[in-house]
């Protein structure tokens, strides 16, 4: 069985010369939920943007859903990896919720009936069915986060990749989002500063610092290691 995500010796520098990834190795098995934690500037968002080809590493390799990251596979990879940005306004740009969630399926060339079915299923998965005709622009940040997740679920991805999903949410919206992520039965890689969320939801964790994965393993074990967390600017949940 192929690994859902396999990153080997990945290096990436920004055009200004800043080295963001310094030989990252990371593996996520099918069906597992892994959190990615680390201080600001560790390279977490940069790594996530490599998983659907927005960024291209200068060295090393990225394999997703059994596909190597090259131009020939980019369309398939982007369909396989549902990437949800930290700021939902980067993801929502259509007049209504329906249009936002239908955007991906329409671009996949699906017929009208299938598009409607996918939109309804995706909104149901995030418990936002009643919002189908609402204007995305007018929603709260918690509602927008759910709609942003629906926009990728409508593409039926194999993997869900989320960047800071609880950032900016009030306690109720955060709790709703945690329940939603718990109920989604799929491979997940989620970057988060929310250590309580990590401890509650993700059996596996990778700690990133200075553009490298410095530790990886069972969440319960790593998050109990006070010295390890302190060395990498993290607090125990």
Dominant shape: globular
Q: Radius of gyration, rounded?
A: 18 Å
Number of helices: 9
* Unreliable segments of 5+ consecutive residues: none
Oligomer: single chain
Structural class: alpha/beta
Fraction of residues in helix: 25-40%
Strand order of the largest sheet: 6-7-8-3-9-10
CA-to-CA gap between the ends? Answer: 34 Å
Sheet having the most strands: 6 strands, mixed
Mean pLDDT: 94
**How many individual β-strands?**
10
In words, what does this structure look like?
With 237 residues, this protein is an alpha/beta fold. The chain is 35% helix and 25% strand. The protein is built from 9 helices and 10 strands. The strands form 2 sheets. A 6-stranded mixed sheet has the order 6-7-8-3-9-10, sandwiched between helices. A 4-stranded antiparallel sheet has the order 2-1-4-5, with helices on one face. Helix 6 (171-183) links the parallel strand 7 and strand 8. Helix 3 packs across helix 4 and helix 3 packs parallel to helix 5. The two termini are 34 Å apart.
Question: How is this fold's topology laid out?
Answer:
Blueprint: E1 5-13, E2 19-28, E3 33-37, H1 44-50, E4 59-64, E5 67-68, H2 74-80, E6 81-84, H3 97-107, H4 112-125, H5 141-153, E7 159-163, H6 171-183, E8 187-191, H7 195-201, E9 204-209, E10 212-218, H8 219-222, H9 226-231
Parallel strand pairs: 3-8, 3-9, 6-7, 7-8
Antiparallel strand pairs: 1-2, 1-4, 4-5, 9-10
Helix pairs in contact: 3-4, 3-5, 4-5
């Amino acid at each position: 069985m192929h690994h859902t995500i396999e990153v080997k010796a990945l290096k990436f520098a920004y055009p200004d010369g800043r080295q963001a990834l310094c030989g990252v190795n990371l593996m996520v098995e099918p069906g597992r939920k892994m959190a990615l934690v680390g201080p600001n500037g560790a390279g977490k968002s940069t790594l996530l943007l490599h998983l659907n080809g927005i960024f291209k590493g200068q060295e090393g390799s990225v394999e997703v859903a059994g596909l190597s990251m090259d131009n020939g596979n980019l369309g398939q990879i982007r369909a396989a990896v549902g990437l949800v940005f930290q700021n939902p306004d980067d993801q929502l740009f259509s007049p209504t919720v329906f249009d936002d969630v239908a955007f991906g399926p329409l671009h996949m060339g699906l017929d009208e009936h299938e598009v409607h079915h996918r939109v309804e299923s995706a909104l149901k998965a995030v418990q936002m069915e009643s919002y189908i005709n609402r204007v995305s622009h007018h929603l709260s940040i918690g509602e927008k986060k759910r709609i942003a997740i629906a926009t990728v679920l409508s593409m039926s991805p194999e993997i869900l990749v989320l960047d800071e999903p609880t950032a900016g949410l009030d306690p109720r919206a955060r709790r709703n989002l945690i329940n939603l992520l718990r109920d989604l039965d799929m491979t997940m890689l989620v970057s988060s500063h929310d250590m309580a969320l990590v401890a509650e939801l993700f059996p596996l964790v990778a700690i990133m610092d200075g553009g490298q994965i410095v530790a990886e393993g069972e969440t319960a074990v790593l998050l109990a290691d006070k010295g390890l967390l302190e060395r990498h600017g993290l607090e125990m949940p």
